[in-house]
Amino acid sequence: MSSPFTVPPPTLDADEVKRRKNTLTMRAVVFFLCVSAITMLALPLPLPMPLRASVAAIDLIAALVVYALYRARR
């Protein structure tokens, strides 16, 4: 039975759906870039440590740039 006091769930417009999808995509990209940086430092790869550290730093900078661009577009 439906009560006259119940409110139907809100419907999402196309802009809200697109914004949520972009937010999810941005979070996934930033997450994987950070995981890549940590993995680069943690795994014993046959690369010199300064090279591994610079690649990890580049990954972290890329994550920051992606996040900054997302925030600027909002």
Overall description:
The chain contains 2 helices and no strands. It is mostly helical. It has one domain (14-73). The radius of gyration is 20 Å and the shape is elongated. The protein starts with 13 loop residues before the first helix and ends with a helix.
Quick rundown:
With 74 residues, the chain is an all-alpha fold.
Instruction: For the record, give the distance between the C-alpha atoms at the N and C termini, rounded to a whole number.
Output: 42 Å
Counting DSSP E segments of at least 2 residues, the number of strands comes to: 0
Overall spatial form? elongated
Could you give a short account of the major beta sheet? Answer: none
Number of helices: 2
- Which structural class is indicated by helix and strand composition? mainly alpha
Mean pLDDT score? 89
Classify the helix fraction into a percent range: over 70%
The residue ranges in which pLDDT falls below 50 over 5 or more consecutive positions are none
Question: What is the CA-atom radius of gyration, in angstroms?
Answer: 20 Å
* Multimeric state: single chain
When the domains are counted, the total is 1
What is the beta-strand fraction?
Answer: under 5%
Descriptive labels:
single chain; 74 residues; mainly alpha; 2 helices; 73% helix; 0% strand
SSE diagram, text form:
Layout: H1 14-42, H2 49-73
Helix pairs in contact: 1-2
